[in-house]
Amino acid sequence: MKIRVQTEPFDLAAEVTALYRDNPAVGAVASFLGVTRDVNAGLGVHTMTLEHYPGMTERALEKIVREAEQRWHLLGVTVIHRVGPLAPTEPIVLVAVASAHRGEAFQACEFIIDYLKTRAPFWKKELTPQGERWVDARDSDETAAARWRT
Amino acid sequence: MKLRLRYFARLRELFGTGAETVQVPDDVRCLADLIGWLAGRGGVWAEQLAPGRAFRMAVNQDMAGPETRLADDDEVALFPPVTGG
Lengths: 150, 85
What we know:
The complex is a heterodimer of chains A (150) and B (85).
Chain A: E1 2-6, H1 12-18, E2 28-35, E3 39-40, E4 43-44, E5 47-52, H2 56-71, E6 76-82, E7 84-86, E8 91-99, H3 102-119, E9 122-128, E10 131-134, H4 139-146
Parallel strand pairs in A: 1-6
Antiparallel strand pairs in A: 2-8, 3-4, 5-7, 5-9, 6-8, 9-10
Chain B: E1 2-7, H1 9-15, E2 19-23, H2 31-39, H3 43-48, E3 56-59, E4 62-64, E5 74-79
């Protein structure tokens, strides 16, 4: 697994390619890209800042990926989450999963992002025309994560 | 025992600090006890840590619950529900 928490942008194509280029057993790579939007609950977003808990963030992501690897047979996982200031249309997070077949890749990819959104210590703050505002956690994220309970 | 406390995001702003080291009395044994002890400071502490308020806790960088036992020199973090991704 490759897990990074970083301020710098990442190269989506390079990260996805790296998951299959050297492994002919890989038949599928599924990926999710989270992107900064320009509108949240009616306020115009100018920039967003991602705060995180250094140390715990990486640990929490590793735990989530390990759980995915136990549930599905995977051949590679990459999770990259940016922190610091981000502008609308900038990518925030990449989850990419390689496996022999698409079923596992799709499922594991969705599982990882659903768990990341409810268990990884990141917090978004928006700078809007009305001032600074912490984003609220969504019930729909908890519902999405709950689907995966065994 | 000694505990290293960390606060993040909105809680950090409201408490006015991101980190502190505290010496807690012997009757603080688990996270629920610690929350009660911090709420005892009154003001914003009582407000934000009152029963029913939504916040999360971690001990030594693992998510934890009210029953989680504490040990000397543990790192305890309090933070709002997470919003990454």
